[in-house]
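tool=predict chain=A
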Amino acid sequence: MAKKVVATLKKEGGVSYAKVIRAVKSDKTGAYTFKEEMVPSTSVQDALKK
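tool=predict ok
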């Protein structure tokens, strides 16, 4: 299973954001690639469920 990393960033305009980094395994080659997303801190769990 891929490792999940969450880094909380400073508040900007009253909304705090988190950078979610996921390692995703390719079906064709078997190599891992990293997907990065900026999401509001309140929806981090929803982003990790994808």
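The first helix runs from residue 44 to 49. Helices lie at 44-49.
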